[in-house]
Design brief:
The chain has about 140 residues and is α+β, with helices and mostly antiparallel strands. It contains four helices and seven strands. It has helices at about 15-20, 25-40, 90-100, 120-135, and strands spanning about 45, 50-60, 65-75, 80-85, 105, 110, 140. Strands 1, 2, 3, 4, 5, 6 and 7 form a seven-stranded antiparallel sheet that branches. The chain is globular. The protein starts with 12 loop residues before the first helix and ends with a strand.
């Protein structure tokens, strides 16, 4: 069984974001950091080299594979912002219809820039995604 590659690190998330070259992507990342911290009540933690995560949970698949992951998070990638943990909850489909310009991937929500989306809907997506992972799935959450 392979080990998870995306694990928490000691890298300062604010320093990581400060190093983002593109000014709009950097500003969007700063906004997301503050939003997700406020909504979840968790301090940001770097997961691997490029994901800023909030909260954590332990998962176990039927295959026996298990590990830890951030409850919600984001990565300010060159092509777009990748947002994690926001698409799984029961409220997500209706919220995504109201979000604005975005794309969906395998477990990710992609946004080119935050100006393309409704900030209140984004806040709701973060809140419901976090709730879904930490409570609705009854996972063993940890700070």
């Amino acid at each position: 069984m392979s080990e998870a590659k995306t694990l928490p690190t000691d890298v300062d998330p604010r320093a990581f974001i400060a190093a983002v070259e593109h000014p709009v992507r950097r500003a969007d990342a700063e906004y997301l950091l503050d939003l997700m911290q406020e909504v979840t009540g968790h301090e940001p933690v770097m997961w691997g080299p490029s994901i800023v995560g909030f909260g954590a949970y332990h998962y176990r698949y039927e295959t026996g594979r298990e590990g830890d992951a951030c409850a919600v998070g984001f990565s300010p990638r060159k092509a777009s912002l990748s947002l994690y943990g926001l698409t799984y909850g029961p409220e997500a489909p209706a919220l995504l219809e109201r979000l604005g310009k975005h794309k969906l991937g395998a477990g990710c929500l992609y946004v080119n820039k935050l100006a393309d989306v409704d900030p209140e809907v984004l806040r709701e997506l973060v809140a419901q995604g976090y709730r879904h992972v930490m409570a609705d799935l009854h996972v063993q959450g940890r700070a």
